[in-house]
Amino acid sequence: MDGGGMPVFWVVAVIFVVSVVGFITGRARALQSAAGDARRLHSLPIYYGSNVALWAIVPAAAALIVWLLMQPMFVNSKVIETLPASLLDGGSSIGLVMSDVRRVAEGLDVAVAQGALSRDAAASIGSSSVNIRDFLGSIGVALGSDVSPEVVDAAQLYRGLNATGSTLMSWIVLAISVLGAAYAYGRSNADFRARNVVERGALGLLIGAASIAIVTTIGILFALLFNTIEFFKLYPATEFFFGTNWSPSFSGRGGLSELGVLPLLWGTFYISFIAMLVAVPIGLFSAIYLSEYASSRVRSVAKPLIEILAGIPTIVYGLFALLTVGPLLVSMFGKDTLNWMQGGTAVMTAGLVMGIMLIPFVSSLSDDIINAVPQALREGSYGLGATQSETIRLVILPAALPGIVGAILLAASRAIGETMIVVLGAGAAARLSMNPFDAMTTITAKIVSQLTGDADFSSPEALVAFALGMTLFALTLGLNVFALFIVRKYREQYD
Amino acid sequence: MREEINVETDVAVNNVKISAKDVQVFYGDNHAIKDVTVEIEDKTVTAFIGPSGCGKSTFLRCINRMNDTIDVCRVVGDIRIDGENIYDPKIDPVQLRAKVGMVFQKPNPFPKSIYDNVAYGPRIHGLARNKAELDEIVERSLRSGAIWDEVKDRLHAPGTGLSGGQQQRLCIARAIATEPNVLLMDEPCSALDPIATAQVEELIDELRRSYSVVIVTHSMQQAARVSQKTAFFHLGSLVEYGETSAIFTNPIDPRTESYITGRIG
């Protein structure tokens, strides 16, 4: 909404038009240079067209992306330079002032868009003439406090710089697009190796897609890391890692909170352990049945049915835990009978339901791995007079074991990262207890509760979420790497 | 050649070990084996030859009921080993397979140690009362498999680490360890190089002293080298069966002659 939205759309549209025109004319020019005989061209005519289109799009798009990334930084630094020092005295940070500036600028843009202000009036409005806060409030942009004249001036500068930037960007990007197309058009003749250029373009596209995934991962990691470091500046790391009490307070800013990760880690491991206790035997046995015993007719029905379990959203499992499994367990172990269980939400409830959720992961991965054991080994064993279960126990499972362990570890890392089932099934109490019928909670569930609501991102109570996320990330990454290592080692055996 | 013929007259007086009568095999609707009747003698190497898809492997797999493991496969007819119908409901196919050993086309040692590979059969059938007896069975089998000298110092190394020819001899030793009466070999040398093939063929000739050996092979030279009796299969039927020397020098059926002279197949 900073006024750049529409220009970017139009710039992209015009680049598209340039590329289409470039495609048609480039193709035509190449054909013409071969006197209309496509066989005398080095490449098929379509490659000449694609070459021109690529030159129209790629450099321009690159310039556009770089500009869009750089402009906010440039504008921000320019605006900050102009802010008087008096504004920063009152204890508020540059970040807060700048967010006020942006809010006012946005408000003015909204006013123009709604027709409440003319473009010129918006550009000349000052705090003296109108009460900006009331005015913007009347069109639906709420401001937290009255704005000072300096902020309004800064907002005007902000709008001005952005508007100029956007205009400049549009023209420069369009010029690059047209120049690129013209350059490629000029080279479209029969001897030009357009096919090779397009091939390199395809390679670039694929590399780009791969790097986006990698860069995003690294970006997420760094976001976590920086905020974690920020948290450890406010809260001692030893107390976080070795504290046995989790009681965040939202009233004060730190000091009163105890943010020990151990109760959460314990809850995470306990629930995951029960989940694996359910998922591993059931998943493994069903995989053995499906791959070794079931007729193809049974398999064709049963396998998709089991895999449907994997498609159920985890929130639905959460509801199942809350409404069905929890009450059922209370009726079995609650105060009417054994009095082990106080309420429906418990480690056992979440663990059982999570175990059910993980059955298809274990079973479908194990099924693939068991099927990958060469048929020759089965025949060899049958040929020696072994029964089916002897063959499975003595030959197939030992051969498939590393792969199955890998599958189990992958399932475990899912269990550790699971959130919704815990939120609904295990409760929210962080506690260190051995009783599986007690309510406990996990790292993921606490990340959610620390960040929902009005979180102040400079307080340790909110920043702890990043430290928790980092802990979780390290845990699951370690498990995944270990699992992949084992699976890979297994693969070497048969290939 | 002369010596071989003498040997054949020797074995000709031996008893019939396997007797098949009017055997039919169906894979679903496909009639894979038609009316095969054959009598296989004890202490003899019998070769099954014929073009690919002629049913020779299928028929071999009827003799230890390996075809039972295939859902769509149906066997009709009468196969007797030592006069006992192996398709009788009284017969447990699992027990039968311990008595009718099988060696496969591709060496298939289990991913276990050499010792555990050979001890596999004796262990599941409880053939040894203690460790010493088991050691003895393993050594005897490996010696019969003509591989003892090569592996005696590394019995606990993985069987998959041996060369192809050694693996195949290990698989033969593994089959011998359950003390079978009959050894079935399904193209046992097709994945081996000529030197390993020669070693395995020599071993097969040794095994003839104690077992009835049935070998499926694509190589007519191999059939001529190792067998005393040869059966020629074509399109699911047994075309001709007789002394190996007779089949290769004086075939009766024109189809046999075409095959061994290389006109069909």
Describe this structure in words.
- The complex is a heterodimer of chains A (495) and B (265).
- Helices cover 74% and strands 1% of the residues of chain A.
- Chain A is built from 17 helices and 2 strands.
- Chain A has a two-stranded antiparallel ribbon.
- The N terminus of chain A is likely disordered.
- Chain B has a 6-stranded mixed sheet with strand order 6-7-8-3-9-10, sandwiched between helices. A 4-stranded antiparallel sheet of chain B has the order 2-1-4-5, covered by helices on one side.
- With 265 residues, chain B is an alpha/beta fold.
- The longest helix of chain B is centred in the middle third of the chain and has 14 residues.
- Chain B is globular.
- Chain B has a single domain, classed as P-loop containing nucleotide triphosphate hydrolases (Rossmann fold, 3-Layer(aba) Sandwich).
- At the A-B interface, helix 13 and helix 14 of A face helix 3, helix 4 and helix 7 of B.
CATH fold call of the largest domain in chain A: MetI-like fold
For the record, give the distance between the C-alpha atoms at the N and C termini of chain B, rounded to a whole number. Answer: 26 Å
Task: Label the overall shape of chain A.
Answer: flat
Largest sheet of chain B: 6 strands, mixed
Major sheet: arrangement of strands of chain B: 6-7-8-3-9-10
Overall mean confidence score, pLDDT of chain A: 84
Provide the CATH architecture of the largest domain in chain A. Orthogonal Bundle
- Strand order in the sheet with the most strands of chain A: 1-2
**Total DSSP helices of chain B:** 11
How are the SSEs placed, and which strands pair?
The complex is a heterodimer of chains A (495) and B (265).
Chain A: H1 5-33, H2 45-82, H3 94-114, H4 119-124, H5 132-138, H6 149-186, H7 194-234, H8 237-242, E1 246-247, E2 258-259, H9 262-293, H10 296-311, H11 314-333, H12 347-372, H13 375-383, H14 388-417, H15 420-425, H16 443-451, H17 460-491
Antiparallel strand pairs in A: 1-2
Chain B: H1 2-12, E1 16-27, E2 30-41, E3 45-49, H2 56-63, E4 73-81, E5 84-85, H3 93-99, E6 100-103, H4 114-125, H5 131-144, H6 148-151, H7 164-176, E7 182-186, H8 194-207, E8 212-216, H9 220-226, E9 229-234, E10 237-243, H10 244-249, H11 254-260
Parallel strand pairs in B: 3-8, 3-9, 6-7, 7-8
Antiparallel strand pairs in B: 1-2, 1-4, 4-5, 9-10
Helix pairs in contact in B: 4-5, 4-7, 5-7, 7-8
